[in-house]
From TrEMBL, chain A:
Residues 10-85 form the Sm domain. Belongs to the snRNP Sm proteins family. It comes from the Eukaryota. InterPro entries: LSm5, LSM_dom_sf, Sm, Sm_dom_euk/arc. One of its GO terms (biological process) is mRNA splicing, via spliceosome. LSm subunits form a heteromer with a doughnut shape. Pfam families: LSM. Plays a role in U6 snRNP assembly and function. Binds to the 3' end of U6 snRNA. Keywords: Acetylation, mRNA processing, mRNA splicing, Nucleus, Ribonucleoprotein, RNA-binding, Spliceosome. It is found in: Nucleus. One of its GO terms (cellular component) is spliceosomal complex. GO terms for molecular function: RNA binding. This is U6 snRNA-associated Sm-like protein LSm5.
From TrEMBL, chain B:
Keywords: mRNA processing, mRNA splicing, Nucleus, Ribonucleoprotein, RNA-binding, Spliceosome. SMART domains: Sm. Pfam families: LSM. CDD domains: LSm3. GO terms for cellular component: Lsm2-8 complex; spliceosomal complex. Residues 11-96 form the Sm domain. One of its GO terms (biological process) is mRNA splicing, via spliceosome. Component of LSM protein complexes, which are involved in RNA processing. Component of the cytoplasmic LSM1-LSM7 complex which is involved in mRNA degradation by promoting decapping and leading to accurate 5'-3' mRNA decay. The cytoplasmic LSM1-LSM7 complex regulates developmental gene expression by the decapping of specific development-related transcripts. Component of the nuclear LSM2-LSM8 complex which is involved splicing nuclear mRNAs. It comes from Dorcoceras hygrometricum. GO terms for molecular function: RNA binding. Belongs to the snRNP Sm proteins family. The keyword Membrane does not apply. This is Sm domain-containing protein. It is found in: Nucleus.
TrEMBL record, chain C:
Pfam families: LSM. This is Sm domain-containing protein. It comes from the Eukaryota. Keywords: Cytoplasm, mRNA processing, mRNA splicing, Nucleus, Ribonucleoprotein, RNA-binding, rRNA processing, Spliceosome, tRNA processing. Belongs to the snRNP Sm proteins family. SmF/LSm6 subfamily.
Length: 88, 97, 90
């Protein structure tokens, strides 16, 4: 029934609409990344560009800037289209 | 080097294939390391190693000074099976070109 | 040009990315936080990786060097092209 609903947006379609724009990726565990989505596959492995990686460590928040990465989809928890609300 | 088909690395597991009967270094989860001769492996990276040195690293916090105490325990094992899912890294012996 | 063609030219799937980085210097970060820097020899669909001239960094400090290294794909968080900068946040 619900599969016939034309208004339903598949999760993969939502991600597809993010290609070319900023996306905020929250991993399982204390890691988050923000970057421009270039592409993804069926496992939601993602190619991201101009990435900022945030790691929460005992010493505080460690920030790493990366040109272009292939992110393993295995440990992704949440995707937020449009990027992080945090100011840079 | 690399003129024969057998010695080329086309996929990552070729690196393991080329290390058969050689001594390799294996880094495992939970701060465990192994050095031993690779007798056999499969696509999961389950491995059979011989004449193995196992190194276990533990970190304890001193009750009074709160300093980290790093301890390494070494032991020899004549023959063992490694389950592939615990493997982080495998490094073959240095091969000269 | 149609919008679809425009998009295709900027889209880079994981497969495209993997093709483009073979033989290049990369940083491989594991879920544990350990970094490996070296030359990417090859990789497969499990993200198993073979690297050359590999350096192991723990908390940004060089801990080990390996001539060749095989990294089991399940531990991989990301594979990055090598250029990058570091900053310690508050």
């Amino acid at each position: 029934m619900s599969s016939n609903n034309p208004s339903q947006l598949l999760p993969s379609e939502l991600i597809d609409r993010c290609i070319g724009s900023k996306i905020w990726v929250i991993m399982k565990g204390d890691k988050e990344l923000v970057g421009t989505l270039r592409g993804f596959d069926v496992y939601v492995n993602m190619v991201l560009e101009d990435v900022t990686e945030y790691e929460i460590t005992a010493e505080g928040r460690r920030i790493t800037k990366l040109d272009q990465i292939l992110l393993n989809g295995n440990n992704i928890a949440i995707l937020v289209p449009g990027g992080s609300p945090d100011p840079e | 080097m690399g003129s024969e088909e057998e010695s080329t690395v086309r996929e990552p597991l070729d690196l393991i294939r080329l290390s058969l009967d050689e001594r390799i270094y294996v880094k495992l989860r939970h701060d465990r390391e192994l050095r031993g001769k690779l007798h056999a492996y499969d696509q999961h990276l389950n491995m059979i190693l011989g004449d193995v040195e196992e190194i276990v690293t533990t970190v304890e916090i001193d009750d009074e000074t709160y300093e980290e105490i790093v301890r390494t325990t070494r032991r020899m094992v004549p023959f063992l099976f490694v389950r592939g899912d615990g493997v982080i890294l495998v490094s073959p012996p240095l091969r000269t070109a | 040009m149609s919008g679809a063609a425009e998009k295709a030219s900027t889209t880079k799937t994981p497969a495209d990315f993997l093709k483009s980085i073979r033989g290049r210097p990369v940083v491989v970060k594991l879920n544990s936080g350990v970094d490996y820097r070296g030359i990417l020899a090859c990789l497969d669909g499990y993200m198993n990786i073979a690297m050359e001239q590999t350096e192991e960094y723990v908390n940004g400090q060089l801990k080990n060097k390996y001539g060749d290294a095989f990294i089991r794909g399940n531990n991989v968080l990301y594979i990055s092209t090598s250029k990058r900068t570091l900053a310690e946040g508050a």
